[in-house]
Amino acid sequence: MGFNNPNFLWLLPISLLPIFLNRVHSRKYSWVSMLPHDPLSNLIGLLLKILATVALIFIILGLSGMHSSQQQVERIGVGAQIALVLDRSASMDDPFSGTEGHVGETKSVAASRLMTQFIESRKNDMFGMVSFSNSSMYVLPLSQNREAAVAAVQATAGNALFQTNIGSGLTSGISLFNKVEDSGSRALILISDGGGRIDANTQQKIRDWLNQLHISLYWIVLREPGGISIFDTNYKEPDGTLPPEIELNDFFKTLKSPFNAYEAEDPKSLGVAIADINQKEKKPIRYMERIPGYDYTRGCYFLAALMVGLLLAVKYLEVKSWH
Hints:
Layout (H helix, E strand, L loop, with lengths): L1 E2 L13 H4 L18 H26 L1 E2 L3 E9 L1 E7 L19 H15 L4 E7 L3 E8 L2 H10 L10 H10 L10 E7 L7 H13 L3 E7 L21 H10 L5 E6 L2 H14 L2 E9 L5 H21 L6
């Protein structure tokens, strides 16, 4: 049991005053001692005092904001613990080719819109989020609060920076799982419009952490029409090196953890990629459902009003004088 305003509880001793105070009208008549003994009236008078005391108690409890404590109940459902790692480099503000009534929609806006739909369709998942450009930024820890997850995703559709530090984004996204109990299904969804070169030490960290924490990796590449494909293993730069996107995909293929890569050239193909992830990450999981405490404030005020109503009703039945 808890109280929003516990200081009001100091007023509880005041509620006992009606029991110790005598009614004023009991001294209006002379020679009251000559009246016959009336046990019923004495009992009713005591009950009225008790009603007044109870009314005051409920008023004070209502003012204190009495409520029950939050509870956690273990449930078994279908879903996953999902960390979203979203690219916020300036190139994410370039438009997709317009389709499905979303002409001129930028890659960041399309990703935000479709990820919002993805989050809202999954009832038992825990979502966390990290964004990155020149460095990573924690946005949301793993949580069952879908409203917070949606707000976090929609906030990424704002202004962006010019660099892409994808290694920092991945390591920060993986770290979201560190202090959260494994539910049995974990996934990291990386959404970017390209790749970036990751140094050997960071690669080893990513490889080890994904394996130790049992995390599946999904990479959605938002590719401009006619751009480089991560699946084109024959493409090389003029100097003979692999483009960052292809090099990063090759690194991901060496992971011991499950890995899936997707390419999206427009909002429709992005939606198809997200839908495929939605189907793959539907496994039985154990999760804790938070049940909010019950607010007793209205009930206290109702009972106080009921007690006062009974006192007023009895007041009208009171005999004012003897004939």
